[in-house]
Write a structure and sequence with these properties.
With about 525 residues, this protein is of the alpha/beta class. The protein folds into two domains: about 30-265, no CATH class; about 285-514, Rossmann fold (3-Layer(aba) Sandwich), CATH 3.40.50.300. Helices cover about 45% and strands about 15% of the residues. It has 22 helices and 15 strands. The strands form four sheets. The chain has a six-stranded mixed sheet with strand order 1-2-5-4-3-10. The protein has a five-stranded parallel sheet with strand order 12-13-11-14-15, sandwiched between helices. α5 (about 155-170) packs antiparallel against α7 (about 185-195), α9 runs antiparallel to α10 (about 230-245) and α20 packs across α21. The longest helix is centred in the last third of the chain and has 26 residues, at about 365-390.
């Protein structure tokens, strides 16, 4: 170690400063996680995984967040290790972060799954939401470490002290009481695991040394109350006693803590209502466009990509080919079902046929519809740009190209304007062209490809109104295969292979572009 450990005094002093990882590293875990821990050891970073080590195996497999306490003197080395392993810093979109605590994410390339790191330079803890307490024992805790599964963790006695106080402080408000007791079996299981590894008398002495106002008798009462599932009332009473004894370590007042807790609950409920996450990368968001012919897997990949990244980060899926209605288009769209029946020759598919594309003559109904659609699409993409700038990852199924005549792009070129003999239609065509110009360019375009025979076969397996339409797949092949995106990074993705391989390439491409 680069830093000389602080020796503790008294009979409870446990100077078990680990010197090398233990041999028991049977749990391999995610490659990126193991690589990070190896880098921390190699660089001599003073750290420990400071809580919930009963679930360390799940942490190493990325099923749980990684909670690291870092010596602030090693901050530069720690950040260097993060960069080496592709971690990207993230921030709360709603401003619910805590001081000296930050989040980072990395992609495990072998599984195409995100890893969530939660790093602390100070121990900010207590209730689950407001984190009202700063416990200034970082150096003391880092002096009390051992190795578990090859990871530096606190000694059982040190972790038991923090666990007991954390659970007690989760019983000081109605919201926290509900949250702490919702799945209380995990609490009793963790307590049993810690008591099985720790010497309780040493933990009592360590607690008295670190927190002189929390007496051994109170510590023993806490152990008994936390161990009993039904002792909720006792835990609440003891939680208030602990809160009183630790009042000198409060970082926010009781009133501010209540306000902060309420704000965080409202934020959490709002995010869940809209299916959004609170985290965005500090580097900002991105618009990712999935383009390509029909049945190349755009919808499937959109769904899986959104689920992989959206497990932790704020991700929004849009469909640029079918934008939602706006105030302008709401009423006209009510007549679309009837128009499909009585004006079947005016459907978009009819105008995609080679003969009508060559003719370049359009009815007023079609021109009006395409102009309104261009307006709706522009509104959708302008909103997507605002969200991406604020940190959201936008994943779009289809996307307009600057090329006139491409799918989802402007429909009317100069020849069409010249052939039009109606001033009203000509005016609408020009408005459509204006609405389709200057649209936000996606940062990344994933052009999905597959052999024409494969896409026809896939389309035949779809359950959709009217059944399979091989002719429509062939007709749109040329229109959708190679539209240019001159201001975007375009990557071709072959979807004619196992889905897992395709997803790994797609997720890696998006993560590299973020």
């Amino acid at each position: 170690m680069r830093h000389e450990g602080r020796l503790t005094n008294g009979s409870a002093a446990i100077s078990s400063i680990a010197t090398k990882p233990e041999a028991d590293t049977a749990v391999i875990g995610k490659q990126v996680i193991r690589g990070l821990f190896l880098s921390l050891e190699r660089k001599g970073v003073r750290y420990c995984h400071w809580k919930s080590n009963v679930r360390l195996e799940q942490t190493l497999s990325a099923a749980e967040d990684i909670d690291l306490l870092i010596d602030r003197r090693d901050a530069a080395l720690f950040h260097a290790a993060l960069l080496e392993h592709g971690f990207k810093l993230a921030q709360s979109r709603s401003g619910t972060d805590h001081p000296a605590v930050f989040h980072a994410f990395a992609l495990d390339r072998t599984t195409a799954e995100l890893v969530h790191l939660h790093a602390y330079f100070q121990i900010i803890t207590g209730d689950s939401l407001a984190k009202s307490y700063r416990l200034p024992i970082e150096n003391e805790l880092l002096d009390q470490t051992r190795y578990l599964q090859g990871v530096r963790v606190p000694t059982p006695e040190a972790e038991l002290v923090l666990f007991v106080l954390r659970i007690a402080l989760k019983h000081v408000s109605p919201i926290e009481i509900l949250m702490a007791n919702r799945r209380y079996s995990s609490v009793t299981n963790e307590l049993a695991w810690l008591r099985g590894a720790a010497k309780v008398e040493r933990a009592e002495a360590l607690c008295s040394e670190w927190f002189p106002t929390v007496h051994p008798a109170l510590f023993r009462q806490l152990l008994s109350a936390i161990a009993a599932d039904s002792a909720v009332a006792q835990r609440v009473a003891l939680g208030w006693r602990v809160a009183y004894h630790l009042r000198g370590w409060r970082r926010v007042s009781v009133l501010r803590g209540c306000g902060s807790r309420l704000w965080r609950v409202l934020t959490l409920l709002t995010k869940r209502l809209y299916g959004r996450r609170d985290f965005g990368l500090e580097t900002g968001g991105i618009i990712v466009a999935l383009v390509g012919p029909k049945a190349t897997g755009k919808s499937t990949i959109n769904h899986i990509l959104s689920r992989r990244l959206g497990e932790h980060l704020d991700v929004v899926r849009i469909h640029a080919g079918k934008p939602p209605a706006t105030l302008l288009s709401f009423l006209p769209r009510l007549f679309v079902p009837a128009a499909r029946v009585f004006l079947s020759k005016e459907r978009a598919g009819e105008y995609e046929k080679a003969a009508r594309r060559h003719e370049k003559r359009y009815s007023l109904v079609y021109v009006l519809r395409m102009t309104i659609l261009a307006y709706d699409r522009r509104k959708l993409l302008q909103r997507a740009l605002r969200d991406a700038t604020a940190g959201t990852i936008i994943i779009s199924d289809r996307y307009p190209s600057p090329q006139v005549g491409a799918i989802d792009s402007s429909c009317f070129d100069e020849v069409a304007l010249a052939k039009c003999d109606s001033p009203l239609k000509r005016w609408l065509m020009r408005r459509e062209r204006e609405l389709c110009s200057g649209l936000p360019s996606p940062r990344l375009v994933l052009r999905l490809t597959a052999p024409i025979g494969v896409t026809i076969e896939r389309d035949a397996r779809r359950v959709k109104e009217g059944g399979a339409d091989a002719e429509a797949v062939r007709r749109r092949w040329e229109l959708e295969s190679h539209p240019p995106f001159p201001h975007s990074n375009v990557i071709e993705i072959d979807t004619h292979r196992p889905l897992d391989n395709t997803i790994e390439e797609v997720v890696s491409a998006v993560w590299s572009a973020l």
